[in-house]
Amino acid sequence: MKNLYDILGVSKSATDAEIKSAYRKLARKYHPDLNKDDKNAAEKFKEVSSAYEILGDKEKKKKYDAGEINEEGKQTGFGAGFSGSSNPFGDASYQTYSSSNPFGAGGFDFSSIFGDDIMSAFSKAGRKRSSQSYSNPFGSESPKGQDVSYTLDVDFLDVAKGAEKKVNINGKILSVKIPAGFEDGQTLRLKGMGSPSAYGGENGDVLILIHVLPHPYFKLEGTNILLDLPISFKEAVLGAKITVPTLTGKVKITVPPYSSSGEKLRLKGKGISAKNKTGDEIITLKIMAPAEHNKILEQVLSEMGGVPKRNF
């Protein structure tokens, strides 16, 4: 299997944020629901998801970087994988030394190193593998069932507040909890809810790609809610009291006199409550010119001084 960093297209020194960003882009690119004519997309999506399951987990990533687990998340090393199905000497491989024995006519005594029962252990392991091969070609470790991919469209406000959705996957109704603050392109994994294994192994997983539907005026940035607020010249110059929407209802804010376009107002604690943190609502002022000609305004502006400096 390819190196997990190569699968996600990042370097080993990539930050958690860079790994997460790379995964999201590839998940969108290869998601089966978006590539129904591409037979390889499902495999690529599964490969990318498996890579992120390890590299996106700090403990697993640490073990992977240290060589303690492999690309499948299994323990590495001689002791971790030794069984009859992975006998490094094959079936009775010790006999192959007899024709050109490098240790002399007397042969090499394996029991002097491994103990008196080494030959019987190899023999039993070989017989065990042989008996298993008729029912399970994969040896003692049966493969998982296939993962099932699904795309779920979720309203912005449901993601902002957190919600529970019912989805029908292969005729089975599943309840899916959408955590508050879940971002577009992230994937929820339902362990063991996928297809069963043909060889008695664990069930596969259900991978649900979340697609957040856009909101008419809100945007999401971490746990903060962003809102662009159009204001008139009059409101910008003289100041104003304006009612604005929040996740919990409408509130009245004060626009200070002589506000500039692009200035930001912050409503503390009016963002998303997630991961032991509550964000804010950040309002960006956008000064809008009148839709119709206004002779009085034009006259006042033409007589007004104070042209700003432009340093460019």
Report a brief summary of the structure.
The chain is of the alpha+beta class and 312 residues long. It has helices at 4-8, 16-30, 41-55, 58-65, 78-81, 111-114, 118-132, 156-161, 233-238, 295-303; strands at residues 148-154, 163-169, 172-178, 187-190, 206-212, 218-221, 224-232, 240-246, 249-255, 264-267, 273-274, 277-278, 281-288. α2 (16-30) runs antiparallel to α3 (41-55).
General description of the model:
The chain has helices at residues 4-8, 16-30, 41-55, 58-65, 78-81, 111-114, 118-132, 156-161, 233-238, 295-303; strands at residues 148-154, 163-169, 172-178, 187-190, 206-212, 218-221, 224-232, 240-246, 249-255, 264-267, 273-274, 277-278, 281-288. With 312 residues, it is of the alpha+beta class. It has a four-stranded mixed β-sheet. A three-stranded mixed β-sheet has the order 1-5-4. Strand 6 and strand 7 (224-232) form a beta hairpin. The longest helix has 15 residues, at 16-30. Mean pLDDT is 78; it is low at 78-135.
